């Protein structure tokens, strides 16, 4: 039994609608699953990069990776804060697990990871799918790893953060059920609407048209088909009515088509002439390419699809020491042997990848014909010559550049070693000087107090001078000890609630004698609405004393020093988050202290280095034993200690000045930012473990 058109259309519509909705829903589910995986992968990548940054900061301080502590706890913190993440481990380059958030992941399988292409300024990520058996069940995991680098750019380990395939499945399960439910409702509703539409707007007009066409086919040419509601069917009825009119005009249409053919032929002739002109231009372009190739300052070698040398330029003859006739026609392997290039299979692979469209840059060592090794940078890319794909290899001599880079790397390593030796000497010297200095100060005090009446007056004055010198030396050693403890992160803070304004007033009162001695005016502009902060009062007093003492020394007699306080809300977030649109950044309350003087000022290029250790040591002629003498320079530790104390409180310190001018006294302003609660500034070193 033949099916009617109506049944065929309805059946076909049902099948198409079902397949369309089903396939669309399936693709949406797959896309949603992919989005879930990408979102979790992006979160894993961010956590891995954050863990890598923390590890590299510690490594930069000279600590070996395997000697580090607290990494496993950091991994567990990452897992606890991200319930969708399954594990966080740190492995050596050979795959051996060093630290893990859970001992169950210590037996992580070693597989080759696929390196993800990174954007400019981003960290490259190694992705892979792994299968592990945990607690007797085997699950599939998405692993994201970043490379942990040494201070010299050498890979040391990998930080892995991964999540289970089961997490993605659990997130998608409810979505799939909802999608299937919506699929059924959409299918029933859509099919019902299509069925009603078909009956009213398709089948009824077709029946009317079929009846009229049947009458015309039986010879009733005067039959007129009435107007139909559907525009297309109405047009069909109108065209049937005027069909006889088209028969009369058939000859005219044929002539018109002939004219169109003549016009098309003229256009083809014009296209052919244009093609001839393009061919001529192409020949000139090839000649220009050959000319540029010959005059190029780099050695250029063209290799054919059969891996034979097709062309070399003049610079290649000078570069390799072989004439063009000695190289052209040689197989690629033979040329590589002549140039004494090692790892020929790798070079073959480079040329194959270049022939496939990749642009390859590789450094290699080769030998000239007359002897002598050189380092060359190879750039290989594919070019088209008709239907044939050629490989263009450009060799550039980078021997001198490589020597310069090696010397720079060696110099950098030597500077790092000297810096470590300086820090070690600082701690050792302060420790070794402390004991004999304590003895000197003790005996000096004993002589000047208990034995003063038994000692000659002249000797007593000498002992007093010795005691004063020892006291100054003791202050320097205390600064050296503080710097050493700050560098080694061993200085602990005793945190308490502090009224910052009262602390500033106490610091100014301690130095009031020096202000009056130098006839300097002190102006306090303190905001009394400031809240209390949590910090170490003793260390903050030391910070303020160092900054105010620096202002006293570099402000002339009769100058003015202004201390002001204010509160500010500032954006702070995760380490490395410099974009204010970063979702992890939030507003936090900071208290700002500014110390402004009318002194000699600071050069712009020195405004960052003034916080370095021993920065002032360079001008040894200007050193003074006076604590606040004008332009006197000490050991250069005061501002370094101040910065260390601010960093430990999670704050920031910087200086602003229009420049150095001992005649016009442009002055300088030190800015100190302290968070109301320590540890808010995630961009600084994490001293939270040192608080007690």
TrEMBL record:
Q: Where does this protein chiefly localize?
A: membrane
- What are the recorded GO MF terms, alphabetically? ATP binding; phosphorelay response regulator activity; phosphorelay sensor kinase activity; protein kinase activator activity
Which residues are listed as membrane-spanning?
180-198
| HAMP domain: residues covered | 200-252
Provide this UniProt record's keywords sorted from A to Z: ATP-binding, Coiled coil, Kinase, Membrane, Nucleotide-binding, Phosphoprotein, Transferase, Transmembrane, Transmembrane helix, Two-component regulatory system
Concerning CDD domains, the annotation shows: HisKA (cd00082), PAS (cd00130)
Instruction: List each coiled-coil range.
Output: 258-295
Please state every residue range assigned to the domain named PAS.
285-358
Q: What is its EC number?
A: 2.7.13.3
Q: Which Pfam families match?
A: HATPase_c (PF02518), HisKA (PF00512), PAS_9 (PF13426)
Superkingdom of source = Bacteria
Q: Which GO terms describe its biological process?
A: osmosensory signaling via phosphorelay pathway
What catalytic activity is recorded? ATP + protein L-histidine = ADP + protein N-phospho-L-histidine
Histidine kinase domain location: 428-678
Q: Provide the protein's localization.
A: Membrane
Q: What InterPro entries is this protein classified in?
A: BphY/WalK/GraS-like (IPR050351), HAMP_dom (IPR003660), HATPase_C_sf (IPR036890), HATPase_dom (IPR003594), His_kinase_dom (IPR005467), HisK_dim/P_dom (IPR003661), HisK_dim/P_sf (IPR036097), PAS (IPR000014)
Q: Which GO terms describe its cellular component?
A: membrane
**Top-level EC class as recorded in UniProt:** transferase
Q: How does it sit in the membrane?
A: Multi-pass membrane protein
Q: Which NCBIfam families match?
A: sensory_box
Its name, as the record gives it, is histidine kinase
